[in-house]
Amino acid sequence: MSEPMLLIEDADRVRTLTLDRPAALNAFNEALYDALTDALQEAAEDPSVAVVLLTGAGRAFSSGTDLLEMGERIANPDFKPGRHGFLGLVDALRDFDKPLILAINGLGLGIGLTIIGFADLVFMSSDARLKTPFTSLGVAPEAASSYLLPLLIGRQNAAWVLLSSEWISAAEAKEMGLVWRICEPGDLMAEARRAAATLASRPISSLREVKRDMTAPLREEIRRARERENDGFVRLMGGPANAEALAAFAEGREPDFTSLPPGW
Description:
Its main location: other. The protein contains twelve helices and ten strands. The chain is α/β, with parallel strands linked by helices.
């Protein structure tokens, strides 16, 4: 029996999607990328769904890409990617034309942060933290974050988030404009559901038109950013910096980038 990946619940025209790999801190493997992509596409096509609310099970929202699977992908030439994979999820997020609300219940790394660029409203638990670990993994940005984050929070805030690989607290995320509301942990889902219910009470046709109009100027630039980032990711993945980062992760130590070849 395959492990559960995504919980789906419908209530009052709101579809709640819960990332459900708590033992792996809801890290995205190929199967979870496929499951969330399918769920977003199905929600977009379902005339009974007005709003999608996304959260995580356990103590993490998402710890990003599954690094164990990333290492396998590099080492195994016969690795079989998913039907949609990471890029398919980014495309589904770009094309999703209904309100998307995030309830960030815990740790958010990588896609656990960059998905914010595609959300319409973001609620965050006061004890949650966010990070984009790209430079600490020796790789490039993802999910059009190099384009969307400067738009959302300004160039200098985005530069710090994308370049530093440092943790961002809930208070810092709110001050930057990365999230809309900070909630006490026990109130997070109730607050997010209240906002989702408000939107879901409006005509779906109108919600979709507003969302399409707001995102129309972004779609082509998202596509271009995704292509640039993917090119950089392909060039850097498996390189000396990424290899050191993955080895350090597997060995439970901090990576040491000081002895890399010049330019790395």
